[in-house]
Amino acid sequence: MLPPLHLDPQAGEPLYRQLYRQLRELIVAGVLQRGERIPPTRELAGLLGVNRATVAAAYELLEQEGLIRGHVGRGSFVAGGPPAGGGLDWEKRLGPSGMETRSWGAGARISFVSARPEDALLPVEEFRQSCAEVLDSGEAARLLQLGSPYGYGPLREWLLGQARAEGAAKAGDDVVVTSGCQQALDLLERVMVRPGEAVVVEDPVYPGLRDVFVRGGARVIGIPVGRGGIDLAALARTLEREPVAAVAVTPNFQNPTGETMDLESRRELLRLALRAGAAVIENDIYGALRYSGEDLPPLKRLDEAGLVILVRSFSKLAMPGLRVGWVVAPRAVARRLAECKQTADLHSDHLSQAVLLRFAASGRLEAHRRRLLEAGRVRLASVLEACAKHLPPGSQHTRPEGGANLWVRLPEPLDAERLLVRAEEAGVSYLPGRLFAVQRPETGGLRLTFAGLAPERIEEGMEILGRIFRAEWRKQRASLEAGLAPAIV
Amino acid sequence: MLPPLHLDPQAGEPLYRQLYRQLRELIVAGVLQRGERIPPTRELAGLLGVNRATVAAAYELLEQEGLIRGHVGRGSFVAGGPPAGGGLDWEKRLGPSGMETRSWGAGARISFVSARPEDALLPVEEFRQSCAEVLDSGEAARLLQLGSPYGYGPLREWLLGQARAEGAAKAGDDVVVTSGCQQALDLLERVMVRPGEAVVVEDPVYPGLRDVFVRGGARVIGIPVGRGGIDLAALARTLEREPVAAVAVTPNFQNPTGETMDLESRRELLRLALRAGAAVIENDIYGALRYSGEDLPPLKRLDEAGLVILVRSFSKLAMPGLRVGWVVAPRAVARRLAECKQTADLHSDHLSQAVLLRFAASGRLEAHRRRLLEAGRVRLASVLEACAKHLPPGSQHTRPEGGANLWVRLPEPLDAERLLVRAEEAGVSYLPGRLFAVQRPETGGLRLTFAGLAPERIEEGMEILGRIFRAEWRKQRASLEAGLAPAIV
C-alpha cells in the first residue's frame, strides 16, 4: 500500500516533481518494495486531487530511472534495481537490514513524534546574521582548510571555558567537538567498549543511544527508569553482579520518560560507579531546557574521581541540522576520541562550528534559549493538563520539568502500538513504547513529544487520543466484565 | 624538547594568546608530556624574539588551567592532569594510543607534506557568494531542521544526476552523502567487512584508508603499486588464494604514488574481482584533477556486475574544511550505509551540503576546477623538472598526470626518514615512506605533495632536498667503496 503522500501547490517545485521525489524516496528507502504495485495514474490522481498528467509525468521520470515499470492494463510496478548481469547479490551478502522502514509520524496532522520546532521557533534570522558575521570575519579562508580532529580551535576553547566556569570541566579535562551527540556516543562506544563487554543504559531509552552500543557488539543491559530516573537499587545489583564498562545515563529530562535524577541520586550513582570501576557517560542534551524547578549540577561537576564523560550538543537548543556536539572528558579519553574521530571523518564541519560559535558567543543563543524556555513552559503545562483531562482511568504519566518528552503508561490491557493505527487514522501520531525498549517492552507505554507543538494542537491532539484510548478502555473493560477474551483491535 | 612555535605579529590575536594556545595544544595532544620541563620565560622569550612579559602572560594562563606548574629557580614543568582522587586510570584502561604525536611538516618553510592550497587558490569569494545565496533562498529554515541519513535531498539528487549523466550510476544505484571520503570509507568498513575478513589495499597507501580497515579489525593485505597502479598479477594470486571481502583501489593519481591505472588494467581488475566475488571500493577523490593525458572512465562506469562502490568528495577540489563526500553504490549497499550513518551521526551537516550544492550547481565549482587544473599543470611540470635535476643518481620517481602527489624512491642505502631530520633543519619537509606502508616499508620511499606549493617554492625546496640527498649518497658510496660500514646518520 502507498503511504500518505503530501503535495504542496504553494511550494515552488512543480507538483509532478514533488510526487516524483516522494515516490522515489519510498522506493529507494525500500518502503515500496520490488514487485509492489503502484496505483494507475487515474486512481492516484483522484486520490491526490491532482491532474492525471501530473501523475503521468512523475511516473515517466521514475520509469526513465528504471525504478518502476508499466504494464498495459495492469498498472505500474516497482522495478527496483537488482545487481545487473549476475554480479554480487548484495542483499544476501550484507544480511538483513535493521532499519525501521516505517517513517513514524510522517503525514500526521498533529504529531507527538518529533521535537522538530515550529518554524516560528527556529532562530533563522540569528542564523543568517551569525553566518554573515563569520563570512565577513576574515576567518572564511581558514574554515575552508582542513582542521583538527579535536574541533575548530576557537569553538573548542570557548566550550572548554564555559565548562570550566560551570565546574563541569576540571584541570585534567579536555573538549572534543563531534558531529552532534550521536557521533559522540558512537565514538565513545568505539573507544571505550570492547565487543562483549557490558554497558548499562536506561530502559526505556532513546533508540539512537541503545543502537550505538548494540551495533558495536556490547552486551546492553537495560535498568528500569522510574520516578527520579534510573533505578539505583537495580543498578547496584547489576554492578555487583558483573563488570560493566560504562553506565550511560541522561540525568536531565530523560528521553523518552522526561524523568530527572535528584541531587542525592546523582551522588549515589557516582558512588556506585566508582565502587564498580565503571565509567559514566552523561548524556545531557536537554539540560539547558528546564521549564520549572531548580537546575541541578551535572554529574560531571559532582565527579571527583574522573569517571564521568559529559556529552552535550547545540541540537535541542537551536539548529539540529547543523551537526555540532561535544564531549568534556578526561584528557586520556579525549585524545582517544580525537584519534578515533580522525579515522571516522577527519574532523567536524568547520562552517557550522564557526557559525554556532558566533551564535553562542554573541549572546544570541542565550536569548533564543529564553524564548524556548517560555514556549516550553506553556507546552509542558498544556500537555500535563491534557493528560489529566483526557487519558483513560488507570493511566499513568510522568511529570517532566524540562526537555521535550513525556511518557504515558496506558492501563492494561491497552496496547499503544495497536491503538496507534486508529490514532493515525484520526490524524494524530506518537511513538509506541516498543521502540524505546531495551529488555522491558511496555505494551501500554508511549512517548509524547510536546516541544514541537503549539498548545492548541497539544490540547486538540490529546483530546483525540483520549477519545480513542478511552473508547478502547471501555470496550476492553466491558469484555473483561462479560468474561470474554479481549477483542483483537 | 619544545617543538617549533610560530608567533605571527601580523595576526589579530595578541602574541601571548598565540603562544598560550600553541603550548596548550602541545600539552593536550601529549606532545609535551607530564613532568617535562618547559623553558624559563627569559629563555623562551629570547628564542622567540619576543618580550619576556609575553611569555610570562602565556605561562600564567597555562598555570591557571593546571597545565603547567612553576618551581622557583627550576623553571616550569608540564603538570598535565591525572584523574583526580584515585578514580579511573584511563591510560591503563584505554590502552596505548595509536596516534602519531608528531605533527608532520609543521613549521617547515617549504612543506611537501600537505596539499593544503595556498590562500590565493581557495575559492573564498565563491564560498561567500554561495553561502549568501543559500541563506537568502528560503531554504535556510529547512537547513536548521534534522534531515535524512542519505543526505540533503537536493544535493543528493544533483549528485545522482551527475553520476547518471557520466554513466557512473546505473538504474540500481543510489547516492549517500557522507562527511567527506574518510567517513565514506569508515561506513563501508562497518557495513561490508566483518572482523577477521580480508581486505585488499594498495601498498603504499593513504594511511587514513589503511587505518579504517585496521581499526575495524579487518585483515589488511597490501598489494604493491607499480607503474600503472596496483600490481594485477599479485592481486590475482591473492584473490585465488583466499576469500577477500573488498578490494579498495584509487585508479586515478593514487595517494601516495600518483600512479594511474590504464583502461585495460581497470577492466582486468573488474574481471578479477568478479571472479573472486570481491566488492570493489573505488576511491576517486583526485579524479577531477587531471593535468595531462586523457580522462579514463571510472571503474564504476565499466562495472556491469554491480561490484563497484564509488567514493568521491569535494575536498580536493574546493573546500576540505567543509566535510562533504558521497558514495555511489548499489541500492542495497546505500541503504546499509544510511542505516549505519544514522547510528554514527544522524546525517551530514546541512549547511555545508547546501553551500557546496550551490557552489557546484552555479558553475563556480567548474570555474574553480579550471583554475586548479591550470595551477596543477604548472606545479606538476615544476616538480618533475626539479626531480630530474636534483635527485641523486639511481633515484626513481613516478610521473603522475594529476592529483597532488609524487613518489620518490631514493637509491639504497639512503633512508628517507633519517634524512628528513636534515631536510627539516634546512626548512624543508616531506613524508617518509614508512607512514604509507602496509606490508612493505620502503626505506628510500618518500612522498612529495606538490599541489600546495608555488612553482618557485617547489624548485627551491627540491634544490635543498637534492643537495642533502646527493651529499648523503656520495658519503654512503664513498664508505661502501672504502669497504667500510655506512655511517650512522
Order of strands, widest sheet of chain A: 5-12-11-10-9-6-7-8
> What is the share of helical residues of chain A?
40-55%
Tell me which protein chains meet in the greatest interface and how many residues each side has: A-B, 104 and 105 residues
What is the highest CATH level, the class of the largest domain in chain A? Alpha Beta
User: So how many helices of chain A?
Assistant: 17
| Molecular shape of chain A | globular
Sequence stretches where pLDDT stays below 50 over 5 or more residues of chain A: 81-85
Major pleated sheet of chain A: 8 strands, mixed
Oligomerization state of this entry? homodimer
Task: Give the structural class of chain A.
Answer: alpha/beta
| The CATH fourth-level homologous superfamily of the largest domain in chain A | Type I PLP-dependent aspartate aminotransferase-like (Major domain)
CATH topology of the largest domain in chain A: Aspartate Aminotransferase, domain 2
The overall strand count of chain A is 17
* Terminal-residue CA separation of chain A: 20 Å
Round the mean pLDDT of chain A to the nearest integer and report it: 91
Radius of gyration of CA atoms of chain A, rounded to a whole number:
25 Å
Q: Per DSSP, what share of the residues of chain A sits in E-state strands of 2 or more residues?
A: 5-15%
